[in-house]
User: Fold these one by one.
Assistant:
Number 1:
Amino acid sequence: MSEYLPVLALRGMVVFPKMMLHFDVGRDRSLEALRSAMKNHQHIFLVAQREIATDKPVLEDLYEYGTVAKICQILRFPGDNTRVLVEGVSRAKLKNLMQIDPYLLGEIEACETPNIRVSDVRKQALLQSARDAFSVYAEVAPKLMPDTIINVLSNNDMGELADYIAQNIPTDYTNKQAVLEELHPFRRLQTVCKILSRDANVYEVENELHEQVHEQMDKNQRDYYLREQMRAIQNELGEDEDTRSEADTYLEKINALSLSEEVSEKLKKEAERLAKMQYHSAESTVARSYLDTCLALPWNTTTKETTQLSRAKKVLDADHYGMTKVKDRILEIIAVRQLKHDVKGQIICLVGPPGVGKTSIGRSVAEALGRNFARLSLGGVRDEADIRGHRKTYIGAMPGRIMTAMAQAKSKNPVLLLDEIDKMSSDFRGDPSAAMLEVLDSEQNHAFRDHYLEVPFDLSEVLFITTANTLDTIPRPLLDRMEVIELPSYTTEEKFHIAKKHLIPRVLEKNGLSKKSLKIQDAAIYQMIEGYTREAGVRTLERELGTLCRKAAKKIVDHKVSSVTVTRSNLNEFLGVVRYQTEKAEIREPGVVNGLAWTSVGGEILEVEVNLVPGSGKLEITGNLGTVMTESVKAALTYIRSRADYYEIPNDFYKTKDIHVHFPEGATPKDGPSAGITIATALLSALVQIPAKSNVAMTGEISIRGRVLPIGGVREKTMAAYRNNIKTIYIPAENMKDLEEVDQVVKDAITFIPVEHVDTVILGALHWDHKLKADVESSVVSSHSDVPTEHNNERTRAVIRQ
C-alpha cells in the first residue's frame, strides 16, 4: 500500500530502521520537507542520493530504497543551521516523486520482509560468523564504543544485527545502502560479514603503513639527533666535516684544468652550491658525484700519436693477416697527420660477416696510432639515455656510454670502438641511433652535450671505428656520416695463414701445450678449413683447433707420450668424421642448377630445383621466397615460353605440365632478383632433360626479354663459389668492374664469363650433345645476333684470368 510523505535526500549517509541518528540540515528543500513532516504525524522518508555533489536531486539522483523515520527533535542554531534527531521506523521504496518544489514529495511503498525459512543451525552459524568478523574488525578499526560491542554480542536477530552493525561502523555509504536494500535477513547479515572482512583488511594495511611511516620518522629524528651530536664532538676535536673546505678542493681542481669559460662557470657554480649544503644531505651526494664525474673526464689530456708509417704498418701486420683496406686507411690517417696536425677525428665503419676480425682490429689500430683505446657495445641498446645519459635530477642518474668510455680512455683523442652499431633498436624510451647522429658528425661533435654533464665536451679528436654485419639496419642519416669499409670473407689461403700465425699459438697457450708437444701439419690445417668449417670468418676454425688441442692434451696425459702429430690422415681421430665434402664435378639430373646468394654472413651456394609433372599448367613456387624472387620465376618462365621454338620444346608445355620450382633450405627466407638466370637455366634444363654442369654457378637478374641485368654482392658470392670448388661462374657483363674487388686467389681458381643475354648461359652451362648444341646454338644465334657463343668468350676469360 502506498502513501505520500515528504522526502529528505541524505548526503553520504544511510538511516536504518530502529536506529536513532542526528544530522545537520541546510538545503531549502530539506528544511521545507521537515516543516511539512512536522505537520503530518512527524513522519518523513529518508533516502541517500547517489552523488554527494548533487545539490538539487531529482528522482534519478536518489536510490530506490530508503527508510521511513520519525522526527524526534529539531534544534535550530545561529546561521540558518538546523540539526534534526530521527528514529528509523521501517524500510520503504520510493516509487515516484509527486513534486520537487518547494520540497520533495514522494509516493512511498512499504517493504515486507520475505518469508523464507532458515534452519537454526545455519542461523546460529551465521550469527557466530558475524560476531567473529566484527571482533576482528573491532581490533583494527578506529575505536568503537563499548556499548556497540556489547549490543553486537547480545543481539540474536539476524536482520536487526545486520542493521545495527552497518549503522555503527565507519564504512562507505554505498556499502550501507547495499545492506539497506537487502530485505532478507539471512542474506543481509551475509552482506555485512563481507563488508566487515573487506574493511578489516583495508584497516590492517593502513595500520602497517602508518607504523612504517612512524618508524621512519623516528629513525630520521634519531639520525638527526646523532648527527648533531657527532658534529658537536667533531667540533670539539677539531675534525669538523666542513663542506666549505671540500668545495675549495674542488675549485682548486677546476682552476687547474684550464677549462672553457662555460664549463668552468658551471662546475664552479656546482662547487659553491656544495659549500652551502649539509655534509650528509642527499643533495650534497648528488653534487659530489657530478663534480667527480666531470673532473674525471680528459678535458685537455691527449696522447702523442705515432708518425712513423713503418712502425704503424708493422704493428698492424703483426696482429692481423690481410685486411688491406683497413690498414691502408689507417696509414693514410698517419700520413695526413704528418702534413696537417689539426685534422679532425674520422668515423670509419667496418662491415663484414662475423668472425673476420672487425672488433679486434680496433685495438690494433689504437696501438698503431699510439692512442688510448676504449670499446663500447651497442648491441641491444634501445634507450636514448644510454648514449646521452640521464639528467641528474633523477635518482641514480649517470652519464651516457660515450662519456663513460671517454673517462675510461683517459685522453680526448682515443680510438673508440662502437661495436655492433647495426644491432641498435628503438622503443618508447627513444631512438639511440638518433642520438648517435651528433656523436658521429664531425661538424657537431666538437660540442657534444651529455644530459648528465649539461656542458659541451669536445669529441672532434676521437677516431670512431664502428662495426656492423650489415648496413640494412643502420639508418641512412647515420650511415651517411661514416666511411664504410667492407671486410670480405676469408679465402682458404688466408684462413691457413691466420691459423698458422695467430690461432694455433693462441690455443696452444690456452691449453698448456707447446709447438713441440703438438705438431699440426699443413695438410691437416687445410683439411680442417675445408672439411670441418664452412664460414666467412675463423671463429669455428678456432673452436675446432681448441677441440684438437684438448684431445691431444688428453692423449699426452693418458698415454704418457711427449708429443702428438696431427696429419690429414689421422685428423678424424681428433675431430670425428668430415662434416663438409668437396663437391665433385659429376653429371646431375636435369633441372638442378647452382646459383649464388648473398647473406649478411657472406655468400652461399643456392641450388635451384625444377621438376615437371603431367598436369594442367600450374606453377608451384616453394622455398620461403619473397615477392621479388617469386617475380623472377615468372619472368624466367615467360622468357622460356617465348624461346620454345628455338630450343625445340613443345609450345604448349605450360598447359600440359605442372611446373614446380623449389629452393632448398625452406626454413631460410630468400629474396632478391639475382637468381633470375639460374631459374631460367633450371627451367630449360628440366624441359629439355639435359643436366647442368655441377662445377658451374651463375648469378644475374633476368628480364622478360632475356637480358641479364647487374646484381650486387659479387665479392661474397665468388668467395662462396671458391669455397665450394666451383670452376666457372656466369656473371652480368655490367658487373665486370666489380671483379677488381675479388681476391686474386679466387680469380686464379675460377673462370668468369660475362654475359649480356641468358641464352649464353643456357648454351654454356648445360651438358649439350655436340650435334644438338650446334643446332640449338645456330638457331638461337640466328634469332638475335647479339648473343655471344662460348667460343667467342675464350678471349674474355683469358683477360679475366690475367
Note: Confidence is low (pLDDT under 50) at residues 785-802.
Number 2:
Amino acid sequence: MQDRYNVKETEARWQKIWEERCAFKVTEDKSKPKFYALAMFPYPSGKLHVGHMRNYTMTDIVARYKRAQGYNVLNPMGWDAFGLPAENAAIENKTHPTKWTHTNIETMKKDLKIMGLAIDWSREITTCAPEYYKHEQKFFLDFLKEGLAYQKESVVNWDPVENTVLANEQVVDGRGWRSGAMIEHKKLTQWFLKITDFADDLLDGLNQLDGWPEKVRLMQENWIGKSKGVKFKFDIVSDSDDDGRELEVFTTRPDTIFGASFVAISPNHPLAAKLATDRKDITEFIAECNRSGTSAAMLETAEKKGFDTELEVRHPFVKDATLRVFIANFVLMDYGTGAIFGCPAHDQRDLDFARKYNLPVLPVVIPEDKDPESFSIGTEAYTGGGRLCNSDFLNDLSIEEAKAEIIKRLEKAEKGEGSTLYRLRDWGVSRQRYWGCPIPVVHCPKCGVVPVAEKDLPVTLPEDVDFNESGNPIANHPTWKKTECPTCKNPAERETDTFDTFFESSWYQFRYTDPQNTVRGFDKDKVSYWAPVDQYIGGIEHAVMHLLYARFFTRALKKCGYLDFDEPFKALFTQGMVVHETYKDNQGKWLYPEEVEHGSDGQLIKKSDSSPVTSGRIEKMSKSRKNVIGLEGVSENYGMDAARLLVLSDSPPDRDVEWTEGGIEGAWKYINRLWRLVTSFAPAKNTQIFTERGKFRAEKMRHKIHCSIHDITQDFDRFHFNKAVAHLHGISNALENFKAEKNDAVMKEGLETLVMLMAPIIPHIAEELWRKLGHEELLVNTPWPKANSTLLAVDTVTVAIQVNGKLRATITLPKDVDKALAEKTALNEPKIQKALDGKSPRKVIVVPNRIINVVV
C-alpha cells in the first residue's frame, strides 16, 4: 500500500494523458446515440475561483456519466468575449480590449483545465473573433430579407455610465444590470429583431419543455405576458383642436369601466408631446419621468406621479360623465396604446394614484357574500372574484360575463374591439459601444440603408480607436465609417452601432457543432446530428434574457432555412451558487479570506497587522466582495477532486452550498480514505474457503454493491448529485467493514464498482485507482456498471431473538435459512450469550423469518 496520495502529481498526470490521447474529442457517429451536454460559457473577466466551478463540474458529471453509458458525448467550451466590461477595463488599464480579452482567456483556460473537465477543446470558440461573428452578420442580413430585422426611432433605456442602450430585460429596479446607474429615457434610431412575431409560438413552446424548471418556464410566460382585453376610444371633450378628438386606451378589465375615475397617458404618448409644445410645466414633468427608466418592474414600485393635463374625456356608458386625463409616470408607451383608464377600487396602482390626487374610488366588483351598500375600499384594492355592482346593465353579472358584454357593446358602437396584447417587446439589438460585433449595413444619402455584400463579410472593428473621447469610439473614428454604397458606389457611412452581446450567445450552441466551418455558421447535417442541446446548465439569472433570446433565435434561423427544429435546449438545470462568509477591516473595506485569521482569543483579525476584522453575511462568491477562493491554492493543497466533491456534497445542486475550510478538509480526508481502501487490497495467492457465515456476508456485500449501482445511476439521472456522494460513502464504508472477511473476489468486485461509480464526480483519483486495480484501458473508456436485478432483491430478513419470552437482540439472516444455521447464529450473538450467562438452553424454537425463542 502507498500511504500517501500524491494529489498534485496524479491530477496533472491524468489531465495530460486525457489531452494526449484526445480522450474527449468527438465526431459525428450515427452508430451511437448522441448526447450534447453544455455549460453556459463564461465571460473572460480574469481568473476563475471555486464559485465558478459548480456548474462546470455538474456538466462534467453528466458528460462523463453519459459517455460511460455508451453515448457519443459533445461537451464543448468557449468564450462570451464581447461586451462593455472589456471596453471599460481596457480604458482603466490603458490597453486594447482585444489584448485584455485574450489575456484573460489564456488565464481562464488554464483554470478550466486544472479542473479536469471532459471538454473537447478542439471545438473552442471565441465570440469576438471575426471568424465567429462574420456568420452572425450573415444571419442578420438573412433576417433583413425575411423581415425579421428593422430600424426605427424609439424611446430607449439609456445607461449614462456605460453610454449605451439597454434592453428592458437589462434594466433591474430602474438601474443598468451591470453599471447600477439609474436609467434615463432617450429617443434614438435603433435596430430591432421581431421577436414579437414569435410571441405565441414562444409561449406555446414552453409546454413542450418538460426538462426545464417550472419556475423558469413561468418567468418566461410572465415576460411574454399575453393579455386579452379590449382597445376602445374615449371622446376628448375639452381639446380645442379638431384633430385628435379621440383617445384610445387598452384594458384587460373592461368589466370595471363603471368604476373608472381617471384616464392616464404615458409621458411618451403623442398627446403628451403635443401638449408639451407650449407648456413648460408639462415639458419638465415629462423630462422628470424620462430620468426614471422604462422597466415595468421599476415603475410598479416607484412613487406614482401624475400631471393633470386639464383635458377630459367622456365616459362611454354614463351620460354627461367625464374623466380627467393625467400624464402618469407608470404608463408605458410600448404596452397597449400607451393610455389606460384607472379603476382604483380594483387595482392597487390605480388606488395609490387616486388617493394621492383625491380621485373617486367606486367598487364595482364585490364578493358573492357581500352587500354593495356596506362594501367599501380602504387602503387595499379588491382584486378577487365576485359579481358586478354599481355598474348599470352589468349588475349581478360575473366578471367574465361583464367583460363579454362591454366588448360586445363597444364593437357594436364601433368604438372598440377585443384585442390580445403582449408584454414582450421587439428586441432592440443596437449598442453604442466599440467592443461588439459591427452591424453590417451602410447608410447611403441616395439609397438609404443598404446591406453589406456577403462577399465583404466580416465587417471588422477598427484597431486604432481612441477611448479617451466620450461616446461611441467607432462613431468618433476619423476614417472607419467612411465607405462606399454597395449599390450606387457613391460615398456612404457604415453603421456605427454594434450588436447587443446576447446576439452572440443566442446561437453559440450551434457553432460548437461545426466550429471550423468558414463558409457557413454550421453545416445543417452536423447541427441536426448534435442539436438540440440535451442538457444545458447555468444560472437562474439567465432565465429571461439569454434563454428567451436563444429560443427566438432558433426559430428565426429555422425560418431562414438553417435549422429544422424550434427549441435550442431540451433540458435545463439551474444550479445553486457557491457561497462564502464575507469580511471587512476596521475601515469598512472588503478582505479576501486569505487575509484573515483567528487571533489567540479566537477573534478574527487581519493577518498583516492583527487589526480586528468583522465577519459579514454568507453570500455568493464575488470579486467585488472579495469572498472568493482561488483555484490554484485549492489545487495545490487539496486537489480539484476534493473541490468537486465539496461543491456537490452538502446540498442539492439547485440550492446554494457553503464553502468552508472544514468542508474542504473533510473532502480531502475522504479522498485519502478511498486511496487507502483501494491500495491496501492485496489478493491472496491461495484458494479461499468460506464458512456459511462468510458466504452470507459475501452475499450481503454483493447486495450492497449492486444496490449502490442502482442508486447512484438513479441519482445521476435525477441530478441528485449530493445523494450520489452519500451513496459513495455508503458503499466505501461497507467495503471497509468487509475487508476483514478476506473474500478477494467480492472485495475486488466492490472496489472496481466503487471506482467506476466515483469516476464522474472525482475523475482523477478514479483513473489512478483503476490503474492500481490492474486495468490498462482508461476508465473514461470503460462502460458504466449495470446492477444485477437478482442481487437487488431483498434476500435477508431481520429476526428477533427472545430469551424466556423477553426480547434480547435482533439479527439479520438469509431469507428462508435452515433452522440449524438460524439457531447457531442466534446462540453466537454476544447479547444472547450475555443473557444466558453460561447456562445451556433447554429448548430453541425457530419461527422461520420471524422470531427465535431461547428457553432456559
Note: The two ends are 50 Å apart (CA to CA).
